[in-house]
Specification:
Two copies of one chain form a homodimer.
Chain A lengths: L10 H13 L4 H12 L3 H14 L2 E4 L6 E4 L3 H17 L3 H10 L5 H17 L1
Antiparallel strand pairs in A: 1-2
Helix pairs in contact in A: 2-3
Chain B binds a DNA duplex (30 and 30 nucleotides) through helix 1 and helix 3.
Chain lengths: 128, 128
DNA sequence: TTGACATGGCGAAACTTTTCGCTATATAAA
DNA sequence: TTTATATAGCGAAAAGTTTCGCCATGTCAA
């Protein structure tokens, strides 16, 4: 059963999620530091966005300590998968492989990546 | 030299572009028909969105005939590529192959797709 | 030409997302 | 305890997107 993962994160929400994915659970201060470096926004903005995300169920927080510790509810992998599916619907009428083809043909994937992809293709064939 | 392709299309803009990509250049009426079917919006909305997109350089129009004929400035492939790159930056710190791996491992691609992808992988190796 | 109808343009409302100022509360140092 | 500083909350402004109402203009048939 697929868990619901709610509405897609907006741009700033993704910026915040990326910090949480990269650093792991942390307080507003750490998140703000990164956002401030990236685009100079105010501390209040970060707090507000986190409260919006809390409402949307994109993050949870541990209030038993100070500062409160935020963590992402959904993994990077799952979120990426959802956004990709959405993008696919919006541009390619739902065909994931069209998009993958596009992505591959225009990227410089390493030999390592290529090998990984081959392995996955094999697995997919055996599944059928 | 890579052509600039401007700001990324918003959701409704993509809906309109999809119509143009699928049907080819056409008038407001045809575009509106589709949008109206999909979500019941008014004719005025379609006209307005097209004028916004004209300003942003996402579409061009031929005014020498009535109705004016709109066409997408960028191809579906190029737009998809850009959006994918953006998504990749926003979720995966810029690694296209992480995203492709995610996409593949969770999709049901056809045997035909799998073969196509293999072919591309081979081409990529020879390029190096 | 005139009336009916499709097409086009424009400003403003509605909605969403992002930003911040101001205030309140907790924490730790003097 | 008092004071200074980090942390949190809230409402509203600002910015971006989408929607529409109203009016103007073009097209075609009677």
């Amino acid at each position: 059963m697929a868990r619901p993962s709610g509405p897609s994160p907006t741009d700033v929400e993704l910026q915040i999620l990326r910090v949480l994915w990269n650093r792991g659970p942390c307080g507003v201060g750490d998140i703000h530091d990164q956002l401030h470096r990236d685009k100079g926004t105010n501390y209040s903005t970060t707090v507000k966005m986190l409260s919006v995300m809390l409402t949307k169920g994109l993050v949870k927080r541990d209030e038993s300590q100070r500062p409160h510790i935020y963590r992402a509810v959904w993994t990077r992998a799952r979120t990426g998968k959802n956004l990709l599916k959405e993008l696919t619907k919006k541009v390619y009428e739902g065909s994931v492989s069209s998009l993958v083809l596009q992505a591959l043909s225009s990227s410089e994937a390493s030999q390592e990546d290529i090998d990984k992809i081959r392995k996955i293709l094999e697995e997919m064939e055996q599944r059928e």
